[in-house]
Design a protein that fits this description.
Radius of gyration: 20 Å
Oligomer: single chain
Low-confidence stretches: none
Strand order of the largest sheet: 1-2
Structural class: mainly alpha
Amino acid sequence: MLKLIKLEWKKNNIRKYICNALILAAVLCLFLYALAFLGIANDPETGIPDAVPGHNTISASVEMLTSMAFLVMTGVMLSSFIVSAYKNKTMNLMFSYPIKRQKILISQMLAVWIFNFAALTLTKLLIYGCILFTSRFKVSSFPLDYDMSNPGFYIQLLAKSFVIVTMGFIALFIGMAYQSSKTVIICSFLLIFVTQANIGDLTMRENAVFPAILTMLSLLLAFLSIRRAETRDLV
């Protein structure tokens, strides 16, 4: 399986996605640094941060922006690795190998999942570390509500990254059903609105049950995406 995953990374030019992830991490880090220490979210008249409900701490902004960015990136990569392979008929060649179709699809999904899980986790650590280090010399506009010396911080960070990247399988399932790469990306944006947006004081972001339900749904749809791979006709 590991060889197949490496083959997928090589075939899809993973260096391009590494560069994109590095640029994305740098942009997010700079923006959140400016949010915390340069006062870009402060009200010009009062000098007080003007944040939407539920985003009055720095970790809320970090989680929201990184989740949005890498959920979309996961959707883009799933679209490129899998859906586009069906549409461009390159999947025909892969399915001609003496390897089960299901194993090939699993390797493609894992190639995307592993990359984005690692990229999202490292990006969060970079941002949290940068803000924490700078807070020793400057006062943050938003309270720093996390403790990087606490093991629970890393457990929570890994769990949230797991949930966000796994949700990409929902978009993949819908995109494969409609045989459309664009559908995968559009569904990724819709998932962002569902999981991160506020409707007044109502939000699913802080609901502990909602991410668990979404994760189980994502894993179920991932299973359904590969279940009929041996008998389903190619696009």
